[in-house]
Amino acid sequence: MTVQLCTPEGMFEPVPYHHVSIGTGTRQVHVAGQIARDAEGNRVATGDLTGQVAQALRNTARGLAGAGASFSDVVRLRFFATRWRPEKMDDFMAGIDRVVAELGIPQPLPPASLIGVDYLFEPDVLVEVEAFAVLD
What we know:
29% strand; 4-stranded mixed beta sheet; alpha+beta
């Protein structure tokens, strides 16, 4: 097993992710920030946080697959969300839940961060996700 996910005793729970990942492989995969665009660059799920999270994760899965990896190899996820407010959490998590089975995303998630930002590089982009994986 290249990646071991765990939450050591005494760390805050429940959270939808593990606090710690241990990567034992030698090859690293870094997937650049993925957004809700299809293969032709067309916008997907404009104005819909749930749909954009799902599409960004689908694009992340494609990036991982291109390097011979999958979500089971991911040691860290980093999400950026525009104009973040805690009230958006249900819609955000619904986007993840929508693609968990489809993409084989571990539950709980690998260690993850959700960072609120004022804006991303285009006004319609509500969320961006980066993934870091380790392979043997």
